[in-house]
Amino acid sequence: MKAMLYLFLLLFGLLFRCYHLSEPDDVHGNDRNTNSTNQQQHSTLERECNTEVSALHKIVPYNADFAFRLYKQMSSDSDDKNIFFSPVSISTAFAMLALGAKSQTQTQIYNALAFNLSEIEENEIHKGFCQLIHKLNLPREEMLAKIGNALFLDESLKVLPTFLEDVKTLYQAETFSTNFLKPIEAKQQVNDYLKNRTYREMVNKARDFSIHMVMVLVNYVFFKDFWREKFHPLLTTEKHFIAYGNTTIKKNFMCQRTWIKFLHDEDLSCSVVEIPYSRNAVAWFILPDEGKLKDVERSLVKEDINKWRASFQYRKTDVWIPKFSLSASYDFKGSLQRLGMADVFNDHTDLSGITGKRNLRVSQDSSAKSEGLPTHPQTWNYDKTKMLSSPILSLIEECGL
Ligand SMILES: *[C@@H]1O[C@H](CO)[C@@H](O)[C@H](O)[C@H]1NC(C)=O
Ligand SMILES: *[C@@H]1O[C@H](CO)[C@@H](O)[C@H](O)[C@H]1NC(C)=O
Ligand SMILES: *[C@@H]1O[C@H](CO)[C@@H](O)[C@H](O)[C@H]1NC(C)=O
Ligand SMILES: CC(=O)N[C@H]1CO[C@H](CO)[C@@H](O)[C@@H]1O
Fold it and tell me: Considering only CA atoms, which residue is closest to atom 5 of ligand 4?
């Protein structure tokens, strides 16, 4: 089976605040015992994680379901904004959070991430993410994406060793000691980390921190833009681009002569183009017929991808793609809550697997940045030249993981 990943560059962060600092300490003791059992289980998991790839293949369909569900939720929540996010980043961050969540909070996280717990076990989920991170971070020539997790922990916060061990071994998370009583310095520390890890692409992305914060969980997916090298500067031309809402703007278009796969889907009223992105990945552009963007967004399902894969035609052609630099910042909270993650963000949240106490609350922060990737472009000419100049949906697929 072929693994599919939906990757977009994104930084995703969860900020934790402490409350109810006066809960009894014996909860702590109990958890430590149960957790040492967990720990044994997870260490075994970690060993297996690097030896076979079946767990990764097992989580892929659920991750794809989550990607489509979240996209649909977000497109119905935001009317005329570009939507640009990395579902794999959000899944990874929340799966990591689920390690520290208990009871209903935990079940809600798994369900919202589209995992059906009667089909896949909790252990398999974490093993799958472990393999995913491992595979993406293997050193290789044509690096497509790198994924990273980090925890910034307040010096005063007592985190259960089990949780730390799990996030380090399963999610390769780096941990840093931070003093959130100095919020400006703490924010600087997170920003420096991101800037370093993303080859200076993510600069000053963290929002303002407060002294009530005790932990920051960061996930980033760094996505290398191969097109930047392939598009010939002499062939870059300024053209009109019709943006969402019928406004015409001038944009630089990059030209590439390449083999593409394309088709027109009559049922969905859209064209689909597949363009090689790197040796391991292809980019798909879904171009709704005029005025059909909302319809396509509403009806698009994961199964369409397989349908298209079987009916592509193949042709060498010139492709014009608008050159974009895009930054976005989202509040996913509403969308995730509507997908079933109700308790995580409210007072009922149970993250006692992190500290042994029910004293943590979550808020989230995220932002994304991309260059060279078009987001919502419009006219699709059926002649020799393909021009992406109107609203489009795009996704990047990495093959053969
Ligand atoms: C979960 O999986 C079971 C067994 O395959 C299935 O019967 C059930 O409908 C699934 N639940 C959801 C919400 O998809
Ligand atoms: C991050 O910092 C380390 C040293 O602190 C350096 O070796 C590494 O090259 C940096 N990485 C990036 C992508 O800048
Ligand atoms: C966009 O502009 C074209 C031509 O100017 C017009 O026919 C069309 O109705 C407009 N679409 C919208 C959604 O305003
Ligand atoms: C409560 C509980 O399950 N405690 C167990 C924790 O793990 C040790 C062995 O590692 C067991 O002996 C405890 O019973």
Answer: 33
Residue 248, SS3 per DSSP: strand
- Residues within a 6 A CB radius of ligand 1: 116, 118-119
The helix (run of H) or strand (run of E) holding residue 131 is: helix 122-136
- pTM value is 0.74
Cβ atoms of residues 107 and 350 within 8 Å: no
Please name the residues in contact with 288: beta carbons below 8 A apart, sequence gap of 6 or more: 269, 270, 295, 296, 391, 392, 393
The whole-angstrom separation of Cα 380 and Cα 244 is 15
| 383 CA → ligand 3 middle, Å | 23
Q: How many helices (H) and strands (E) does the chain have?
A: 12, 13
CB of 152 within 8 A of CB of 189?
yes
Report the residue among 189, 191, 195, 196 best suited for mutation to probe ligand 2: largest number of ligand atoms under 8 A from its CB.
Answer: 196
Q: Which two tokens stand for residue 101?
A: 């969540």
As a whole number, the mean pLDDT across the chain is 72
Ligand 2 center–CA 356 separation, angstroms = 35
* Ligand 4 atom 14: residue of nearest CA: 33
**In angstroms, rounded to a whole number, what is the distance separating the alpha carbons of residues 339 and 69?**
8
pLDDT for res 218: 84
d(C-alpha 109, C-alpha 92), whole Å? 11
* Nearest atom (ligand 1) to Cα of 111: 13
| Rounded distance between C-alpha atoms, residue 90 and residue 88, angstroms | 5
C-beta 199 within 6 A of ligand 2: yes
Amino acid at 374: P
Note the pLDDT tens digit of each residue in 315-329: 777 777 666 555 566
**Closest ligand relative to 390 C-alpha:** 3
The pLDDT tens digits for 165-210 are 999 999 999 999 999 899 899 989 988 998 888 777 667 767 777 7
